Amino acid sequence: MVIVAGSLRIAQGRRDEFVAASRPAVVQARATVGCLEFVVTADPVDDDRVVVYERWESVEALAGFRGDGPGDDLSAMIVSVDVGQYAVMS
């Protein structure tokens, strides 16, 4: 299992726009074979922070979905990224 978790800093005043624009990716990921969990959500305290959490059956499943990452529209809103990928051994 692979977990991707962390946070993004979003341009001031654009956090809710970022979360809304991420919805299609969340829907697509959850429909992808190998996706166990996928969420992009607004931090309830910091108005420029978004939290991401993903669980995948394998690195291959994650790589198959991820491709080149977020599109230019979402990338333009991101100020900084603190996200890690973790392999979980059962």
From TrEMBL:
Pfam families: ABM. SUPFAM superfamilies: Dimeric alpha+beta barrel. Keywords: Monooxygenase, Oxidoreductase. InterPro entries: ABM_dom, Dimeric_a/b-barrel. Residues 2-90 form the ABM domain. The keyword Oxidoreductase applies. Gene3D superfamilies: 3.30.70.100. GO terms for molecular function: monooxygenase activity. This is Antibiotic biosynthesis monooxygenase. It comes from Actinokineospora fastidiosa.
